[in-house]
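job 3f2a | input accepted
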Amino acid sequence: MFKCLKKWLDFSNSIEKNEEDLMKKFLIVGLGNIGEKYDNTRHNIGFNILNYLVSKEDISFETVKLGDTTTLKIKGRTLILLKPSTYMNLSGKAVKYWLEKEKIPLENLLIITDDLNLPFGTIRLKTKGSDGGHNGLKDIQDKLQTSKYNRLRFGISDSFSKGRQVDYVLGKWSDDENSKLEERLKTCTEVIKSFALAGVNNTMNQFNGK
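job 3f2a | predicted structure (210 res):
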């Protein structure tokens, strides 16, 4: 009887430990389009932010199924950084695959995306919301069947003339924007780390609007 009880306790503790380990695992996804012509365009800010973070750590990306990934470990947390290779409009395919492959809870997912409705460099961390006409977010919502996932929105402003939205979004940063970009990228990496270490609510309180 005591042996059976011990086995049950060991099994129960093992389940609790596995659940605890999963809660310390995060998927951080920077949205963008692959290909040289899209490098450093406004729509690729998600890629830019993850590239900047990786450049400051002793890690590098590896090309794997549906994207480039690397792992960042900070204070007992494991952050899987992903740049999907599916092109923006099919981002959800890569997000869903890596969430399931790594058994990461939905609440530990963070999507990094550009946002036309925010002034340049403004950041907003949200736990849910509409796709706002963003094709990457639209596909993620479709594949995950929910709009309740964390997203870090990076403002690219809406300084384009009528009918020029696509050219603007897929265009390069202006000289003035480029001069301010590194400081904004640094702040975004701090948001990512805080998201994993302090939680989404504390991070929103600290960084939203900065």
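job 3f2a | The longest helix spans residues 175-198.
job 3f2a | closed
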